[in-house]
Amino acid sequence: MNTTSAPPINLVQPGLYSHGDPFTQWKWLRANDPVHRHPPTELPGFWALTRYDDIREAYNDHETFSSAHGILLRPDEHGADPGGGRTLALTDPPRHRQLRGLVNEWFAVRAVRALENDMADIAQNVVERALEAGSCDFVTDIAARVPLYVICRMMGIPESDWEYMYTLTSQAFAADDALTRRIAHLEILGYFDKLREARAADPGDDLVSVLATAEVDGARLDPQDVILNCDNLFVGGTENTRIAAAGGMLAFLEHPDQWRALVEDPSLLNSAVEEVLRWTSTATHIMRTATRPVTLHDRRIAAGDKVVFWLPSANRDESVFDEPDRFDIARKPNRHLALGFGEHFCLGSMLARVELRLLYRELLTRSPHLTLDGQPKLLDSIVVNGPERLPVAFGPQGRKESP
Ligand code: HEM
C-alpha cells in the first residue's frame, strides 16, 4: 500500500493525454486501488484495471470478459457498437476463431517475410520524399504513410487510390471537427463496399477478396460483415502503427543517447522496436464486458459491468519492469502488453514490428541527425495516445545518399 495521498482520479478526460499526466493516476491506482470503480461521466461507469498481472489474467479469460459488446468506452446514447458480434475485434469464440481463421495466414511470419521487400521499398520511398523536403511533419508525412500503403497493398487497393485513402484516413483520424471525421469514415466504408462487390465478382489475391468470397458455416459472409471487417483491418493496420512510429521517434528525440546507441549499433533494432511498443503503448484503453459475476481483489464485478484495461499502465508496472519509467532500447526481457494478449492478441503484430524496424532502419542510415523542428502536439483522445503533430528537420546529412 502506497501512503501518498490520492490524486483526483479521472481517466476519461481527453486532455489528460494531450497535456496532463495520466501516469501519476495509474501509479497510485496500481499501488492502492487496482480494481477501481470509475464513476459515470458522459461515458458509463466502469472498473479500471491498471496492474500488469490483473490485465493479463483478464485477457486470458475471454469467457468472463467478452469483446462482443464493444472494446472501447462509448456514451450510452450512441447505442451498441455497430461492429458488435460481427467483426474480428468485436466477437467471442467460436465466431471470433472462424473470422480470424479466414485471414490469419496473411499476417503470419511467412507471409510478412514475403512482403518484406515491398515494405522496405515503401519505407525507402516515403523517407526519401520527406528528406528531399528537408523538414516535415513526421506524423503525416512519414509515420502515417508507411502502414497505410502496406495495408492498401495487402487489401488489393489499387495504387492509384492510395493518395485518396491517405486523405480519407487523415480526415477520419485527425480532422478537428467530429462531422468531417464521421463523413470521412463513411466514405471509407463506402469505398470498401464497392471494392467488396468488385472482388466478390472477380476475386484477386488480396484480403478484400478473401473476405468477399469466404464461407463460414456453409454461407458467404453478409456484405455488411465484409465491409465492417475490411474497416477493422484497415483501421487496425493504420492507426496504431502511425502513432507508435511517431511516438517512438519522439522518444528518441527526447532521449538522444538512445538514438545514438541505435545509430552506432543497429543490431539493437529488434529490442528497440519492443521498447518503442512498450513506451508508446498507443492503445490507451481496451474494454471488456463481464459475462458473469467475478471477484477481483475483493471487488465484486457484476455480470454486464464494463471492465477497462489501461495498457500504458500495465507497461509501466514496477512489479514487472525494472525502472519502468526509463526508455531503454536494450531492455530484456520486455513482455509488454502494447499489442494485447490472449484470444484477441493483435493480428498485425508481426507486420507492425517489421514496419517499425524498416522505418527506423531507413531513418538511422539516411538521417542520423534528425532533430525536432517545432513543438510536438499530442492527441486529445482516451482511445489512442501519442503525437498528432511532430515537426522534424533532417539536417544536411539527411540528404546524403545511403551507402
Ligand atoms: C504498433 C502498432 C499496433 C498496436 C499498438 C496494436 C494494438 C492492438 C491491440 C492492443 C489489440 C488488442 C485489442 C483487444 O484486446 O481487444 C489489437 C488487435 C488487433 N490489431 Fe493491432 N495493433 C497494431 C498494429 C496493427 C496492424 C499493423 C494491424 C494490421 C491489420 C492490426 C490489426 C489488428 C486487428 C485486426 C486486431 C483484432 C484482432 C482480434 O480481435 O482477434 N494491428 N491491436
TrEMBL record:
SUPFAM superfamilies in alphabetical order: Cytochrome P450
Position of the signal peptide: none
Pfam families assigned to the protein according to its UniProt record, in alphabetical order: p450
Listed transmembrane segments: none
Family: Belongs to the cytochrome P450 family.
PANTHER family registered for this protein in UniProt: BIOTIN BIOSYNTHESIS CYTOCHROME P450, P450, PUTATIVE (EUROFUNG)-RELATED
Protein name: Cytochrome P450
Species: Actinomadura fulvescens
Upper lineage: Bacteria, Bacillati, Actinomycetota, Actinomycetes, Streptosporangiales
